From TrEMBL, chain A:
Gene name linked to the record: WBP1
Subunit text: Component of the oligosaccharyltransferase (OST) complex.
Pathway field: Protein modification; protein glycosylation
One of the protein's GO biological processes: protein N-linked glycosylation via asparagine
Keywords attached to this entry: Endoplasmic reticulum, Membrane, Transferase, Transmembrane, Transmembrane helix
Name of the protein: Dolichyl-diphosphooligosaccharide--protein glycosyltransferase subunit WBP1
Its biological purpose: Subunit of the oligosaccharyl transferase (OST) complex that catalyzes the initial transfer of a defined glycan (Glc(3)Man(9)GlcNAc(2) in eukaryotes) from the lipid carrier dolichol-pyrophosphate to an asparagine residue within an Asn-X-Ser/Thr consensus motif in nascent polypeptide chains, the first step in protein N-glycosylation. N-glycosylation occurs cotranslationally and the complex associates with the Sec61 complex at the channel-forming translocon complex that mediates protein translocation across the endoplasmic reticulum (ER).
Pfam family, one: OST48_N
InterPro entries: DDOST_48_kDa_subunit, OST48_MD, OST48_N
Any Gene Ontology CC annotation: oligosaccharyltransferase complex
Record's bilayer topology term: Single-pass type I membrane protein
UniProtKB/TrEMBL annotation, chain B:
Statement: the UniProt record of this protein carries the keyword Endoplasmic reticulum: yes
Pfam family membership, one: Ribophorin_II_C
Membrane-spanning intervals of the chain: 191-212, 233-250, 256-277
Protein name per Swiss-Prot or TrEMBL: Ribophorin II C-terminal domain-containing protein
Localization terms from the record: Endoplasmic reticulum membrane
BP GO terms, sorted: protein N-linked glycosylation
UniProt source species: Alectoria fallacina
PANTHER family noted in UniProt: DOLICHYL-DIPHOSPHOOLIGOSACCHARIDE--PROTEIN GLYCOSYLTRANSFERASE SUBUNIT 2 (PTHR12640:SF0), RIBOPHORIN II (PTHR12640)
Membrane-topology descriptor: Multi-pass membrane protein
TrEMBL record, chain C:
Membrane topology: Multi-pass membrane protein
Species of origin: Alectoria fallacina
Homology family: Belongs to the STT3 family.
Annotated protein name in UniProt: Dolichyl-diphosphooligosaccharide--protein glycosyltransferase subunit STT3
Reported function: Catalytic subunit of the oligosaccharyl transferase (OST) complex that catalyzes the initial transfer of a defined glycan (Glc(3)Man(9)GlcNAc(2) in eukaryotes) from the lipid carrier dolichol-pyrophosphate to an asparagine residue within an Asn-X-Ser/Thr consensus motif in nascent polypeptide chains, the first step in protein N-glycosylation. N-glycosylation occurs cotranslationally and the complex associates with the Sec61 complex at the channel-forming translocon complex that mediates protein translocation across the endoplasmic reticulum (ER).
Record EC number: 2.4.99.18
This protein's pathway: Protein modification; protein glycosylation
GN (gene name): STT3
GO biological process, one term: post-translational protein modification
InterPro entries documented for this protein: Oligo_trans_STT3, STT3-PglB_core, STT3_N
EC class of the enzyme, as a word: transferase
Region: Disordered, residue numbers: 699-718
Compositionally skewed regions (Basic residues) per UniProt: 701-718
GO MF term list: dolichyl-diphosphooligosaccharide-protein glycotransferase activity; metal ion binding
Ranges of residues in domain STT3/PglB/AglB core: 513-562
Amino acid sequence: MLALDPRSYGNEKSAASLMEEVLILLLGCISNRGYKLTFESPKNDKLALFQHGERAFDHILLLPQKSKGTSSPANVDDFGLPNPGLGPALTPKLLVQFINQNGNILLTLSADYPTPTSISSLLLELDIHLPPDRDSLVVDHFNYDAASASEKHDVLLLPQGSRLRSDVKDYFGGDGTIAFPRAVAQELGNSNPLLAPVLRAKSTAYSYNPKDEADVVEDPFAVGEQISLVSSMQARNSARFTVFGSAEALENKWFDGKVKSVDGKDCKTANREFAKQIAAWTFMELGALKVGRVEHHLSSITGDAAGNDSVAQLGYLNPTIYRVKNEVTFNIEISEYSYDHLSHLKIDPSDALQLEITMLSPYHRLNLIPISQTPNSTTFSSTFKLPDQHGIFSFRVNYKRPFLTNVDIKREVTVRHFAHDEWPRSWEISAGWVWIAGVWITIAGWVAFVGIWLWSEPAYEQSKGKKMQ
Amino acid sequence: MRLSRQLLSFLLVIYAASISVAATWGFEDATVSVNKKGAGVGGGFKEKIGENKALSKPIALGASETLKILLTTKEDNKAKRPHQAFLLVKDPQSNLDTSFAFQVKENGKGKIELTQKDLPAQLLSSTGPLDASLVIASFGSTKPYSVKAFDLAVELDSGSPLPSSEKPLRYGKLPQIHHIFKSDPNSPPKIITLIFTAAVVAALPVLLGAWISLGANLNHFSTAFSSSPIPHALFFCSILAIEGVFFKYYTSWNLFQTLPPAFGIGLVTFLSGSRALREVQGRRLAGLR
Amino acid sequence: MAVEVLEPFLKGDTGRNTRGLLRLIILCTIAAAAVASRLFSVIRTWHPLGRVTGGTLYPGLMVTSGIIYHVLRLLSMPVDIRNICVLLAPGFSGLTAFASYLITSEMTTSPSAGLLAAVFMGITPGYISRSVAGSYDNEAIAIFLLVFTFFLWIKSVKNGSAMWGALTALFYGYMVSAWGGYVFITNLLPLHTFVLICMGRYSPRLYVSYSTWFSLGTLASMQVPFVGFLPIRSSDHMSALGVFGLLQLVAFVEFIRQQVPNKQFQTLLRGLIFVVFVVSMGVLVLLTVSGVIAPWSGRFYSLWDTGYAKIHIPIIASVSEHQPTAWPAFFFDLNLMIWLFPAGVYMCFQHLKDEHVFVVIYAVLASYFAGVMVRLMLTLTPVVCIAAALAISSILDTYLVADNPIPTETQSNGQATGDSVKSATNMIKDSLRSTRNPVLGIYSYISKASVVGAVTTYLLLFVLHCTWVTSNAYSSPSVVLASKLPDGSQHIIDDYREAYYWLRQNTPDKAKIMSWWDYGYQIGGMADRPTLVDNNTWNNTHIATVGKAMSSREEVSYPILRQHDVDYVLVVFGGLLGYSGDDINKFLWMVRISEGIWPDEINERNYFTARGEYRVDDEATPTMRNSLMYKMSYYNYNALFPAGQAQDRVRGSKLPAEGPQLSTLEEAFTSENWIIRIYKVKDLDNVGRDHASAVAFDKGNKKKKTAKRRGARVLRVE
C-alpha cells in the first residue's frame, strides 16, 4: 500500500512493495507535483491511518497483494486464512472513516491477486459488487490485444473516453486505446447516485472464473457494458474513491506498450495518460470546485458601482431580510481546480448551474448565467422576483454532478410581507376614490354642521336645533 | 444510427465471407419459437434463423410466453462447444444491454429459454423493439460471431402494472421552476368609480341646500362672538385643526406623531367647547334657538 | 360606642367625604393586596410572544408594556422592559379589582358591595391563576379590559350617553387588540340589548349607547391587523350586526308610533319588522352558506358541542385548557363564591334594572362556557365576584347595623349614596312584587352577631383558601419541578433549564429544533433557537406535520425532518421520574392531529392494542413501537436497569427486554432525570448507504454477500 501526503516534500520512505515498478510509473505522473510518499505494507504494525483522531494521510493508493506462497515472506498470512484481510489498520470500518474524513482512496485490483475480504466487504458497502469467485477475470473475444493475448483474450483493448452522459464533464477522454490486462469486473448498484463508472467493457465482454468455467460459461457474473472496469465513488463530502480493475494496466509494459487489435492494426497504448487522469481525479486535482464569493442583494442597487457607491460599501450586500416580491440578484463565483491551478468553470450548455429559492419546496429554480469571468473563476448570476409568500427562504445552489466535487451553498434569508406603509396609497387605487370622497365630504358636512349648530338662528318658532336634539 | 449499425453488420458479413481463410464461429439448425405457457408444443410461433442474417419481422414476447432458441454451434462448420454462446439483448434507444448464456452441450447443441421475468426492468419498459444478437466466441484465434438475429418486441400485460422502472436518482440538471404569483387585485372600471364619487360629492351641496332651504343660517355669529369670542373661535378652529391633524395622519404622519397634537388640540376643544356650548345653551334657554 | 364617636363622620356632608376617603383607602389596599398576592409566585415560563409574522397575534399586550416602558422612561425611571412584562399582570389585576368595584357599584346602592367585589376579584384563585407575576399572557390585561368595558357599557346604558358609549367602544377596541376572547363581549352586549328589547325595555338611551358602541367599536376592532375584516365577515360577529339592524328598526317603529298613533298601522308595522328581520336573517344565512361570511370558527363550535373539537379539530382539544371543566375546579377556583353566586344572581332578579339584566345574562352565559372549557373559567370569575359581593353585602348591610332598623333609614341611606342612580331608578317601575315591600331589617342582636360571625368566618376561610391555592397551585413555575424527598427537604428538578442551556451552548445559532408545540416558546425564549412550531396554534398543518414526523416510522419521518431542515429533535420523557406531563402521554394528540391531515397514513387505531389499550410495554403495537416518538423516548432506556427490568414509572409498565433502535437520529443530550432528551438528526450517509445499514456496518455486522441472483438482472442506468 501507499499513502500520499502532499503536505511536505521529499523524505521518501520506502517499504517493501510488491509492484514497485507500477508505483514508480504511476508516481512518475503525479509525484513531481510534490507529494510526500510513504510506502507501507499492510502487515506493518505501526501503520495507522489516523493520528490523534485526524487523518495521517491525505490519499491512499491500495495495491493488490499476493496471497500466500506467491509473495515475499513478509506477506505470508499470519492467521493462516486463505484470503487474509488487510490487517488491523485497514479494516473496512477504518477505510470508511478515512473517506468520511475527506481522505481519497485509489484502489487497484488484479485478477492475479485475490481481493482481500476486507476490500470486497468495503466495496459491498459502497454498492460495488465484485465477482464472488476471487479469480474471475474479464475477457472479450472481440476486443483484445492480439499481440500479447491472442489465445487467452484477457487483455482488453478499449477506446479511451466515452462520456458518461452528454451533460457530464469528460475528465477521462482521449483518442488513444487503453490496454486492460487481467481485469476484475465490477458491477455497480443502480440505486447509488454517488457511483459512476469511468471505464466500461464492450457489450461482448463477460467475466468468468478460469478455474470453474474454463470450458464454457453458463451463468456469467457480469456481462457487456454493465461491467465496470474502473469505477468511481464520490462521497457526499466529496472524498473520492476509485476502483481500478487492473493493476497490471499500470505496469511499465503497458504504459507505453504497443498493442495489436483483433483486425490487425498496431497502436500505442494510452495507459499513461489514462492513469494520470485517474490519479489526478482521485487525488483531487481534477474536477474540484471552489466557491468564491456568494452575494445577493436587491437588484435595484447596482452591483457594479465602484468605491463608496458599491453594494458592499453601502451595506446592502447579503441582507438577512427581504420583502416579498423584491427583485433580488444572486451572484456566485466558482473556480475549478485543474492539475495545478484554479481555472474558470465552464458549464456545458446541456447542463446548468441552478439556484433554488426554497421554503419547504422550491418556489423558483433558475439557471444561473455566467456574467463575468476571470482567469481563475467564473461568476454566475441570476435576477429574480421573490415569491409572494413570507417565511424563511433559502437561496440554495446545489450543484452535484458526477466527477465534480459537490457544491451545496445555502443562504438563509427572511422574506417578510409588506409593511403597512409599503402598500399603494389609497388614492392610487381607483376603487377607493368613492370612500375617500365619502370621508372628506362627511368631514366637510360635519364642519358645516358645527358652524350651523353654533351660530344658526332659528328660522321658525319651532327651531331646527330643538328637533335635532 | 440503426442504419449504420445494420450497414456495419452487413459489412462484417461481407468481410467474414471474403476472408474465409480464417476459421470462424457459427451455428446451424437454429430455431426460435415462442410458446404460451400451458399451450401445446406446436401452438406458438416458430421460425428458423439463418446464419448472418436477421429475421425480417420482430418477434413478440407476451407476458406469459416463453422464447426458446435451439441451435448447434460450430467452429468451422464442425459442431463444437464455444466458451461464449450468448443471446445479447440490447435496447437501441438507451444503449443498455444484457446477455443470456446458452446452455451448450459438448456436441454444440445449445438451448436458451427466455421469459419476460428474465429481462431486466429497464429493457422491459423500453418503448421500441429490442435488438437480439447471437454471440458465439471462444478463446484462440477463431473468428468470433456476433450478428443480430431478430427484433424482440416485448408485449407487456396491460393488466399488470409496469415493472418498477422508475429512474433512480442521478445528479444532473433539473427542470426550471418559476413561481406563479397571485394576480393583483383589480379595480372596477374608472368610469363607474367616478360616477359614484360624483354622487358622493354631490351629497354635500344637496345637504347644504337642504339645510338652507330649512332655514339654516349664521345669524347668531355676531351674538356668539360678542358674548364669548375666545371659546367660539378656539372651538371652531380646534375642530378644523383636528381635521387637519387627521389629514396629516392620512398623508404623512404616523400614529405617534399624530397622537400628541391630537391630544393637545382635543384638550383645547374640550375646554373651549364646554364654554362655547354653554353659551349656545344659554341662548337656547333664552329661547333664541 | 364607637359608632357614636364615628357618628359625625358618617352622617351628613363630612360623613360623605369621610366615607369617600375610607372607600378610596380600602380600594387602594385591595389593589395593593391584589398585586402583592401575585408577587410571591416564582416566575413561570418566561416567554415574550414573538413571531416572524406580525399579523397573526393580538398586539395589545406588547403595546401596553411598550407604552408603560416608554412612559416610565419619560419619567426618568429606567425600568427594564422585562420587569415591566413580569409585573404587568399583577399590576393589571389591581386595576381589575378597581373595575369590579366600579361595575358592582353600578348594580346596587350599597357601597360595601363594590368593595367586596374588588376584594374577591383581587384574591380569587380563578383569576390569580392567570395573572401571577411573569404570566405575560393576553389574559393578563384582557380581564381588566373585559370588566372595565362591561362597566362602561352599563354606565352608557344607564345614562344613554354617547360619551360613555364611545368610551365603551374605545376599551372594546383595546380589548380586541389584546385578546381573542373579545368575541365574548361582541356577543354579550348585543344579547343584552336584544333581551332588553324583548323585555320591552327599548329606550332612546339603549339606542344611543348601542349604536355608538357598535359603530365605533366595529371600526376600532377593524384597526387590529389580526382581526381585519372579520367583524363584517365572520359569523362570530354577526349577532352584533343583526341586533344593530334590529335596533334601528325598533327605533324607527318607535318614531313612527309617536307620529302616527294608529293601532292597525302599528300591527302592520310589527308585521313589517318581523318580515324584515326574517329576511335579513335569511340573507345572513345565505351569505354564510355561500361563503361570503366565514362560518363559525372551530373554537366556537367546540363551545356548543364539547365532543366537536375532539373529532374535528383535535388541535384545539389537545390543549389541557380546552378540556371541559371538572366540577371540583369550580370550588377550587372560586370557593365560597360559587354558592353565593346564585344568591347574587337572584338578587339581581329582585331589582332587574337594565344593568341587572346584564349581570343575569352574563352569569348564565359565562357559567355555561366555564363548564365547557377550563380556560373560560376566567370569564366566569368576574361575574361570580360581582354576584357574590352583592349577596354578601346585602347580608352584611342587613345584619351589620348596630341600630334597630327604622323603616325610613333605608330610604335616607339610598338618598346619600344613590344620587346619580336615583333618576334612572325612578324611570323604571318596580317590576317584581318583592321589591315593592319595604325591607325592614333585623332586630335581634344574637342573630346579627351569629350571622355576621358566620359570614366573617367564611370570608376568613376564603382568604385562607385563596392563599393556599395561590401558593400551592399557581406559584410553582412549570420549568422547574419541585419534589419532596423522604426527609421532607425539597428537591429541585431542573431538567428543562439544563436542557435549554445545553441547546444554547452546544448547538449552532441557526439550528432548528423540532419539538411538540408546547415547548416552542420555551425553546425560543430560553434556548434561543428557532423551532418548527410554538404555542401559537395558527397553522394546523404545520403542527400536524410535526405530529406526523413524531408518530411515523423513521423512514417516513426522516424525509420530513430533512425537508424542514431540522437539526435537533427534543422530546420530554417522564418515565424515569414519573413525570406524567411527558410526550408519550401527549402522543395520542399528535397522532390525532396528524390523522386529521393525513388520514391515509396515520391511524389512531394502530396505536392501540387489539383490546383498545394504550400500552408501551411488550404488548404495544408495532406501529407504536416503530414510531419515532416511542423510539426517542425509550432509546437506551434499558441501559439504566438490569437486563429486562426497565420500567416506565408514568405508565407503570415494564418495558420490552430489547430497547428500540434508532438509525436516522443520534442521541445528543439527555438531562439528569431523563426528562428532556435531545436527538441530532443525522446527515445523509456519506457514502450513500441507507441509515439502517450504515448503523449495522458500524456495529460490525458484515453485509451478506449478494446471494445467487434470482430473477432478472438490475441494470445500472446513467
